Structures are given as C-alpha cells and as structure tokens.
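#onboarding

Welcome to the new folks! Below is a worked example of what a typical request in this channel looks like: someone posts a single protein sequence, and someone else replies with the predicted structure as tokens. Don't worry about understanding the tokens yet, we'll cover that in week two.

Example request:
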Amino acid sequence: MRGARFRPLDATWLVLAGLLIGKPFGIWFMGWLAAKPLKLGLPEGMKTSDLFVLGSVAGIGFTVSLFISGVAFDAGPVQDAAKMGALLSFASALIAFAAARVFGVDKRAD
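Example response:
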C-alpha cells in the first residue's frame, strides 16, 4: 500500500497478538481437528480444553520471536517494538493459569 507507514507500536501489538491469541487458538483448533473430526484422539485423561491451556503456555514466545524480530526488521525502532511484543508475551503465563482454573485443569498424581 503506497504511502502507508508502519509504526513501531504496531509491531509490538502484532507480535503480542500472535503469541497471546494466535498460538492458544491455533494449538487448540488443530488439536481439536486431529482429535474429533480426524478421530485420532487425545492422550488418556486429556480434554480438548487442556489444549487451550497448553497453547497459552506455548505463547510465552521469547526465543523464536526475538530471533525473527531481529531478522525481519532493520535495527531501529520497529525492531525494538517487535522485540518488546515478544518480551510482553510473559502475560501468556497469566492467561494459562487463569484458563487452567476456568477449565478445571488439575495436576494428576500418578
């Protein structure tokens, strides 16, 4: 788009949305797709709601997100903002704890 400008703050929110929203829903959806319509099943004792919690844990995306931000953007404010979005993904841990409580995920004693 000619004349459009990419603001640094946009990079922060886009990276953060990908990690906080995209990862949990993507992992949940693909796990549900494999378990239900494709009839591949889930491990014993696991529910599809557990997949969302796992996706939230996976949303803590420091390593790859920081690497991709460094490669995708030239050094400067946009790269710094994208890296900040990756660092703010620690909030995904809070979402995972809340989702585990809401969905009733408990530690199993074997």
